[in-house]
Amino acid sequence: MSVVLENSRGWVLDACSLIDQSCSRCIRWKDNQKSYVKCCFKWHHFQILKSHYGEKETAAMDAGDAGTLQQADKPSKKRKRKRSELNQGEIDSQVFHEKVRSVILEGTKSLVEPAQACGYLNRVTDTVKDPLPSHECRLAALCDMAKELPLGEHLEQEEHAQVLVAKDGSASHVDLFSRVTESRTDCATVVTLMGEEYVIPAHASFLLSDFTQIQPLVLYEKKFDLIVMDPPWQNKSVKRSRRYSSLPSSQLKRLPIPLLASPSCLVVTWVTNRPSHRRFVRDELYPHWGVQVVAEWFWVKVTKSGEFVFPLDSPHKKPYEVLVLGRCRPSADNSTSSSEAPVEDQRLIVSVPSALHSQKPPLAEVLKSYVGAEAECLELFARSLQPGWTSWGNEVLKFQHVSYFTVAPVDDPADKAAAAAASSSSGGSSPA
Question: 128-134 contacts: CB < 8 A, separation 24 or more?
Fold first, then answer.
């Protein structure tokens, strides 16, 4: 179960568990041969055992109670610059942090402590030394190359989508760049695409393309009740690391949200702790799309023992990120539909973050009560897939690569059924 605990403050999530739920039994197609396997996301990606506190703070926590969130009550003793030395962005960050500090601290305590009582988020001493996958993701580069290909706008409507796996298990003919690819099987599949193996959840659809080639998603002509996006925000860290290409905030306005969203669609945007990004989403981006802000939530990142991954009052990195939630509204109509589930403000999502850069926790289980179990869901700028969702991005398959999973063979269900039938038949016969 991915939702470990829920109360009025929010949720404690086990992100790895949710990934595993969708891959507990997979059909593996290799060289057109079919077999059955179990795929488990390598759990040591989520083994964040130590917080990034200084040595003195860490020693104090080790000497104290296991519930170390109390340490966050005490501001860091590091020398702080005078307010006059801060630039405007830093001042804005400080002001926002002071507003939400008690929400983060008290809410996290109210979630972590009962989770620990249930046996989750307790201190772990065993560590796994396996290295993180060294697979180099080449998807973004392939998307750049695919720009030279025609988009296929002349295709008939029914040709804007394609089936991932043919009856013979073949997936080599699939055009990943100009059509939405659909997995129509009731269980996950492991298929070879572009010479690499990927784990594809059941009923997942995806388009592999960059910002300039998003038109096939519009031509797909599906309206979505939930749209989640994790934009590649510009910042100095990303620029230095060159992990991925960032996108100017102004370019986000070009996303065709009005063409993709159903009436009253819930739009959720991951925002960095940079105040200008949060203001842009609230004051420019959402109004441009006709989206009304309804709530702000916080993703709180903790270690396996329930500590904040960074000091709560750190002037550099905070242990939380913001999600801005909004509802699509018809023009000049800000009324709330009676069928809409109200979205509570300032709720927390507490989880152990992945050690893999930019891997966010899946939100399907948390958001389904606000959009309905049968909602059509879309993730933009995705780096992984979710069962039943449509996903788009230039690295949309990144964390589906088989190198992130352990793969083990399991019995063919047809063989097990035959064995059970034979056993039942044998057991039911009377001796002569």
Answer: 128/43, 128/44, 128/47, 130/42, 130/44, 132/45, 132/355, 132/356, 133/42, 133/401, 133/403, 133/404, 134/403
Which of 76, 59, 64 lies closest to 319 in space, CA to CA?
Answer: 76
Encoding tokens for residue 401?
């690569």
195 three-class SS: coil
Distance (Å) of CA 256 to CA 146, 271, 282: 21, 19, 17
The H-or-E segment that residue 349 falls in is strand 348-351
Q: Report if residue 60 sits inside a domain.
A: no
CA 174 to chain centre: 25
Phi/psi at 76 (nearest 5 deg)?
Answer: -60, 145
Q: Does 414 fall in a domain?
A: no
Distance (Å, rounded) from C-alpha 378 to C-alpha 381?
Answer: 10
The predicted model scores a pTM of 0.86
Domain range for 163 is 3-48+123-409
Q: Where residue 385 falls among pLDDT bands split at 50, 70, 90?
A: very high
- CATH code of 375's domain: 3.40.50.150
Q: What pLDDT shows up at residue 427?
A: 61
Q: Is residue 268 part of a domain?
A: yes
pLDDT digit string (tens) for 58-100?
Answer: 444 344 333 446 555 555 555 555 555 888 888 999 999 999 9
Would you give the DSSP letter of residue 147?
T
Percent of the chain scoring above 90 in pLDDT: 55
Residue 311 identity (one-letter amino acid): P
Residue 315: name the closest of 130, 90, 115, 138 by CA.
90
- 235 in a domain, yes or no? yes
Interval 185-234: pLDDT, tens: 999 999 999 889 999 999 999 999 998 899 999 999 899 999 999 999 97
Q: What is the total count of domains within the chain?
A: 1
